[in-house]
Amino acid sequence: MPRPLWTGAISFGLVTIPIKVISASEDRAIHFHQFHLSDMGRVRTRKVCDLDGEELSQDEIGKGYEITKDETVPVTDEELDQMPLPTAKAIEIVSFVDAAGIDPVRIADSYYLASGGQVAAKPYTLLRQALERSEKVAVAKFAWHGRERLGMLQVREEAIVLHVLHWPDEIRSPESLAPKDVELDENEIEQAVQLTETMAADDISGFRDHYREALEQLIEAKSEGKATPEPAEDTERESGQVMDLMAALNASVEAAKESRGADDGDATDATVHPMRSRRKAPAKKTAGKKTAAKKTAAKKATAKKTAATRSQEKRSAS
């Protein structure tokens, strides 16, 4: 595990749990430097004062808030550290909610919370088991990087994870983005649902970053003076090409079946949707009427046969 990014405690009612914050993910992307094309000299970003043109070190740089173009209010790190925040060194749990009640759009970065020594082992385990048994997540406040933040505490395997949440007023509304007045045929919807069923997966752990792998091959080949790899065949449609929606859905379903090794006889629409079940209902009712009619006719024939037998027996007796 990498070194802790922050140390503090979880405030759980009157219970205090010392913890260390560790990043739950890592950046595996390939990063580039900038170079001068003519001589391959490194191009760097330098911090220069606008007034005197001098390059500054980090020790000479401070923070400030620009009120107007000519007026800036300086704010020191010491002043920020002395802000009257109860969450300055604690992740304060303020509520417990159902996980489904948290909008995924609000989730930002994620961090593991490691117990801070043996003294924290018991209260840490207590909170983890309370979250598991209640099937809830904890909503908490904490101060980090000069601002108060909102977070969600959730159990992952044997650890507690802190998901940083955006504040409600930081989420933009998507109201104006949805297309207006679009009519869809019921068959198109049914085929789209069938496509989702065909492409369904239990998990996404098998996905790989093919772009990064290709980039690593390119860098390796160039560093060794070898020929660069051939570009992959472009199978994308021409930009701007308009396809028939139903035809595209049918083709997509067939392609998904083929990629999963399903033969043509496999039924992928095992889930019966309302539109189809309504069409099948009359057939069942008609079959029931025919069966009842056959039973009635059989009863009448049996009755006639019995009456004829009795009449013949009476004539023989006389």
Tag the structure with descriptive keywords.
seven-stranded mixed barrel, alpha+beta, disordered C terminus, 318 residues, two-stranded antiparallel sheet
Task: Describe the 3D structure.
With 318 residues, the protein is of the alpha+beta class. Helices cover 33% and strands 23% of the residues. The chain is built from six helices and eleven strands. It has a seven-stranded mixed beta barrel with strand order 1-2-8-11-10-9-7. A two-stranded antiparallel ribbon has the order 3-4. A two-stranded antiparallel ribbon has the order 5-6. α3 runs parallel beside α5. It is extended, with a radius of gyration of 36 Å.
Cα distance, first to last residue?
111 Å
Q: Describe the biggest sheet?
A: 7 strands, mixed, barrel
Number of DSSP E strands: 11
Principal-axis shape equals extended
Task: Tell me what portion of residues adopts beta-strand conformation.
Answer: 15-25%
Q: Class by helix and strand content?
A: alpha+beta
Radius of gyration: 36 Å
Low-confidence stretches at least 5 residues in length (pLDDT < 50)?
262-295, 303-318
Strand order of the largest sheet: 1-2-8-11-10-9-7
Helical run tally: 6
Q: Would you tell me the overall average pLDDT?
A: 79
Give the H and E element order: EEEEEEHEEHEEEHHHH
The amount of helix comes to 25-40%
Short overview:
With 318 residues, the chain is of the alpha+beta class. The protein has six helices and eleven strands.
Write the SSE topology.
Blueprint (H helix, E strand, L loop, with lengths): L5 E7 L2 E9 L10 E2 L6 E2 L19 E6 L2 E5 L1 H5 L8 E8 L9 E9 L5 H14 L2 E8 L2 E10 L2 E7 L20 H13 L11 H14 L21 H15 L14 H44 L1
Helix pairs in contact: 3-5
